[in-house]
Amino acid sequence: MLFANIALVDDSFQYREGQWVGVRDGVIAYVGDEAPESETAAAFGEVYDGTDRLLMPAFYNAHSHAPMTLLRGYAENLPLQAWLNDAVFPFEAKITPEDCYWATMLACAEMARFGVVSFSDMYYHMEMGARAVLEAGMKANLSDTLIAFGGEGLADLPLYEQNEMLLAKWHGAGQGRVLIDCNIHAEYTTNPGAIRDVVAYAKAHGLRIQVHVSETKLEHEECRQRRGGMTPVAYLDSLGVFDVPCTAAHCVWVDGSDIETLVEKGVFVAANPASNMKLGSGFAPYGAMLDAGVRLCLGTDGMASNNSHDLMQDMYLLALAGKGAALDPAAVTPQQAIRAATREGALSQGRADCGLVKQGMRADLCVLDVSGPSWAPMTNPLVNLVYSGHGSDVALTMCDGEVVYRDGAWPTIDVARTKAEVSARTRRIQAELAD
């Protein structure tokens, strides 16, 4: 495809008009302010008219629980611990592998609709997640969840064999579109021996780690009581978690010392502003994190604590929450918010060749229709992108050069069947819980 005479967000996160971008063999092969020579242009195939369109890097959802589309609208208006223990865990105990397949497929359809091409997922039955992701033509970093309330080590848990299977069958599948990570659910759901085992396993296999950190004040303070005054960040660091590439989700209640550790260890922090507000967990210090040099990325969390995979909505909330929490209208710039939703998300997944509109990068792109009234006037297009744009403005989503959503159509997903399957499966689980 050749995007012709189109405005774009460039690799420095600046707005540029009248650009030409050529995609071939899954890669951005040309970027210029003039059309490529006619023979070269012909090799790109379809010419996409850039009138009233904005081309930008696709979005990368750095923290999600994709199968939780099954729980959308379920367990509402509850604080996190009651939400988790009294509603979510009992529901999840009824979820089958096939449920996870259809629920992940629905998440893929929703994310593609909103310009997301890749997501980092923590859940169960990840072989089904891998199957859905590959069929949808998308990307994901998938990790089965470590929960170890007793003295179990990794080798004592079914998770060990599951990880072995995932690595053997799915790691690197789809020419690298599926990657397998390790994950630690949280400090309060695991024991130190199991955490050390996961760290050793990740190091031995060259894997990344995903973990929930300081999501609530209760979690943060109870960890200090349990762990001799250590915060969750300090505790996890003492066990070596941050000695491998790591994405720490939430980090709402981190303190100054925690932030220093996150910067020193190069930890990616996956912000989840919608989920944190919906569950009443608080407002993370995004401005302080960015000022200190934390690698901030962006996630939706699961659909029982956000209800939407529209990452543009979370980008808007990231900017607003950062300003509101810091009492500083300059706390989060539009460029910082956009970078968190794109390039930093890609890097958090170990995808160094993704997340920028730049020659030689993977063609993970989305096109926004900027003809609507909310986009006028274009006084500052990047401000419009963060504060006026919506996921519904996405007109095209491309993953590795292949279109996965365009103008109301999903070429890789039977959306009608997927919606029906997930709705039926949610009803079945609710009926089982009622018995």
From TrEMBL:
Pfam families: Amidohydro_1. GO terms for molecular function: hydrolase activity, acting on carbon-nitrogen (but not peptide) bonds. Residues 55-404 form the Amidohydrolase-related domain. Gene3D superfamilies: Metal-dependent hydrolases, Urease, subunit C, domain 1. The keyword Hydrolase applies. Keywords: Hydrolase. CDD domains: ATZ_TRZ_like (cd01298). This is Amidohydrolase. It comes from Xiamenia xianingshaonis.
